[in-house]
Amino acid sequence: MATWSNLNLQNSASPLMEQIIFFHDHTLIILLMITILVGYIMFNLFFNKFINRLLLEGQMIELIWTILPAITLIFIAIPSLRLLYLLDELNNPLITLKSIGHQWYWSYEYSDFNDVEFDSYMTPVITMTPNNFRLLDVDNRIILPMNNQIRIMVTATDVIHSWTVPALGVKVDANPGRLNQTNFFINRPGIFYGQCSEICGANHSFMPIVIEVFHLNFINEYM
């Protein structure tokens, strides 16, 4: 989860989030290089006294400053397209989880089981324990196994919501009358927090998401 004064991305808990962080760093380095180069050129322009009365055109420099940005965009576009296809790819999922957005709570259904469905409300402040996080904990958490492909199907009953868990690199819009799906692979156990990231009304800030991830053997023993 995000911690106080942490300006970086959260530690990843899935291979897809690792790839998103790599792409973010790759793009940031390119932007940093461009910023430094343009800043250096502008700084020199203020302090030099070069004058050329006969300069009418510079075809070579125009060719260079047309081709270089195109090459730079290619270096950004190729990893971006690769990542988009990776995020869209769906392998054989072990579990399908259905998430339904309401004003202002989430409902969940484990589609592979007949009668496993529950509502997940934010934990009120008056019932919180010292181990709870304010505005982030819920009364019923999602339980998922690690090291397995998980499919999530997202919809809503009233307005547009967005099911978002940053540590997993997942953000899916929940639209009424539409079923969106994505997948993720959790590679470490833990508790991962998320929130609705689509402004959906007065209590938009109060519909958190909590995923508790265990090893599959532990879940089997617990059940």
Task: Tell me what you see in this structure.
It is a single chain. This protein is α+β, with helices and mostly antiparallel strands and 223 residues long. Helix content is 31%, strand content 26%. The strands form two sheets. The protein has a five-stranded mixed sheet with strand order 3-2-1-5-8, with no helix packed on it. A five-stranded mixed sheet has the order 4-10-9-6-7. A hairpin with a 6-residue loop joins strand 2 and strand 3. Keywords: Copper, Electron transport, Magnesium, Membrane, Metal-binding, Mitochondrion, Mitochondrion inner membrane, Respiratory chain, Translocase, Transmembrane, Transmembrane helix, Transport. Its cofactor is Cu cation. This is Cytochrome c oxidase subunit 2.
What's the quaternary structure here? single chain
- What structural category characterises the helix and strand content? alpha+beta
CATH class of the largest domain: Mainly Beta
Helix content: 25-40%
Shape: elongated
Number of domains: 2
Strand content: 25-35%
Which stretches of 5+ consecutive residues score pLDDT under 50? none
For the record, the CATH architecture of the largest domain stands as Sandwich
Family: Belongs to the cytochrome c oxidase subunit 2 family.
InterPro entries: CcO_II (IPR045187), CcO_II-like_C (IPR002429), CcO_II_C (IPR034210), Copper_CuA (IPR001505), Cupredoxin (IPR008972), Cyt_c_oxidase_su2_TM_dom (IPR011759), Cyt_c_oxidase_su2_TM_sf (IPR036257)
Protein name: Cytochrome c oxidase subunit 2
Cofactor: Cu cation
